[in-house]
Amino acid sequence: QFDLPNEAAQADVLKEIEGKPARVVSVEKKKKSRSTAAPFTTSTLQQEAVRKLGMTTDRTMRTAQQLYEGIDIGSGTVGLITYMRTDSVALANEALFELRDYIGQNFDKEYLPNSPVAYRNKSKNAQEAHEAIRPTSVFNTPEKVKPFLTPDQFKLYQMIWKRTLACQMTPAKFDTVAVDIAVGAGTFRATGQTLVFPGFITVYQEDADDVDDEDEARLPVLEANDELPVDKLHGEQHFTQPPPRFTEASLVKSLEEFGIGRPSTYASIISTLKDREYVILDKKRFTPTDTGEVVNKFLTEHFTQYVDYNFTAKLEDTLDDVSNGEREWVPVLADFWKKFHKQVEEKLTLSRKEVTQEEIDELCPKCGNKLAIRLGKRGRFIGCTTYPECDYTRNLNEDADSAPLEPEVVPDRTCPDCGSPLHIKVGRYGKFIGCSAYPKCKHIEPLEKPRDTGVECPECHKGSLIERKSRYGKLFYSCNTYPKCKYATWNPPVAEPCPKCGWPILTLKTTKRRGTEKVCPQKECGYSEVVAPPAQE
Predict the structure, then answer these.
(1) Is 119 a catalytic residue?
(2) Catalytic residue among 83, 119, 306, 527
(3) For the segment 17-43, what is each residue's pLDDT rounded down to a tens digit?
(4) What are the start-end ranges of the H helices in 277-389?
């Protein structure tokens, strides 16, 4: 490490070994076994559902609740899994007996351990009143109950069933291989492994986030002194990478490791982050929004002790002492509340400007006063600190020299509400047209003219329905006289009256199950007519 300080040194090494034959110097083999993962707790269930099934934590818990409450499987309503809010990895004795019986009946004897496999919980604050999440009966196989389950229910049940079965099977066995290969004066090492006996992997294998393990690679059979062909020699420069952004799975794992929250709160914590728009999901990873960064800055600067990783874990320990009778709850709460209330009172004098604005070392090109990074409705931007006296603004990532001092004026048009000039502005969702008299006049309209369907609005009969996009990018159709008429529908409109209730329009609805059909947008009507059957897979 660090022996090749620059690209020139790397090039010298490559030049020295260029054209030299590659020869296997040594092959080191070792036996390795891998034990199965413990049965599901709430945390691990949510993590695996995110990784394997692409389900959110909230959707996972809703589906698990349905499986726990019971499904009619032909012989009556049956709860298919045990309670889904638990920290425990223990299984009831009757469940262990049933699992071993099933493995003995359906697998070779090598797959059944001599005795039941027991697991211990690593979490310090684990609450183990309930056993691990498991099928209520392993003989309710996924194939047997599939006809009675929704796709989400089936996928989640199948994963729980397989994980529980695998946890009582023998470990998988591998041969690990480390090969040293000499090319001239240089020595290269390749590592990998070969599966010898699958064990539990026959049924289930746990997924993981951000794994790039060279030891998992498959290698051909190699022996010492083997000559190997050299296709290419190349060098790569590696930089220290920041840790990857959280996925839902890795966030749940970290919450559990730091002792933040409880099994029942992981999904609600993540839902709150998304619902309040503190974060957005980009390629299944959390990215903080401008609002999230401002809130984070405010809390870490002004309420440091309460957003410390250890705060929740310490509070949980204290509350455990209360539940065990070792402390009185009134002094515990009084001690917290007095300090917290005092701090809140001190922070009441903070202005919104102090929290949402951050001065930068740059002067306003329009009036010469200080510029600041500010937070608006559509995210962060750079603006003059003397606003509203000076209205200079530019995008956060825009260069000061290239940013126009004056906004772009829409030619030959004025605001239909107040008659002021219209400007082309830039917001969180791109460019739009807005009134120059903002904030007195709040008229806005899209930069591109929306597509007109030509279908008359069924409510006001004055406007027509045009295609628009919601803030999340989903298409919908609304009256072009908005806000005077607020009629809207999600599905494309058709200029045909409903034959059942007489409503002036129908809409086209497409689903995988029923294909494309004309439906009445009036919910109480319920009329539908299939136009095109679903595509055959």
Answers:
(1) no
(2) 83
(3) 877 888 888 888 888 888 888 999 999
(4) 290-302, 309-323, 329-347, 352-356
